[in-house]
Design goal:
Structural class: mainly alpha
Oligomer: single chain
Distance between the termini: 30 Å
Number of strands: 0
Largest sheet: none
Shape: elongated
Length: about 90
C-alpha cells in the first residue's frame, strides 16, 4: 500500500471522527434544548449545562482542528518543496 493511500485513509478517519464528535455535541445540545421546553428543566442549572457543553465542544474542536491544521500545513509545505525541486513553478 502506498504512503499516499495510507495517509488518505488515515485523514479520512480523522475527518470522519471530527464530524461524529460535532454531531454528538449537536445532539446533546438539542436534547438539552428539548428539556428546557419543560417547566421543570428551566433555569440557571440548565443554562449552565448548555454553556458547559458549548465550552467543551469549542475546546475539543479547537484542539482537534489545531492538530489537523498543523498536519495540513506540513503537507502543503512538503508539496511546495517537491514542486520547487521538480521545477513546477
Amino acid at each position: 500500500m502506498s504512503v499516499m493511500k495510507v495517509r488518505t485513509t488515515e485523514e479520512g478517519a480523522i475527518y470522519e471522527s471530527l464530524v461524529k464528535i460535532q454531531l454528538g455535541f449537536a445532539q446533546i445540545l438539542e436534547a438539552l434544548n428539548n428539556l428546557q421546553q419543560h417547566k421543570s428543566y428551566r433555569g440557571l442549572t440548565m443554562t449552565a449545562a448548555v454553556e458547559a457543553v458549548r465550552e467543551t465542544r469549542a475546546g475539543t474542536l479547537f484542539e482537534i482542528l489545531g492538530v489537523l491544521h498543523a498536519r495540513e500545513e506540513r503537507e502543503w509545505a512538503r508539496w511546495g518543496r517537491r514542486q520547487k525541486r521538480e521545477g513546477d513553478y
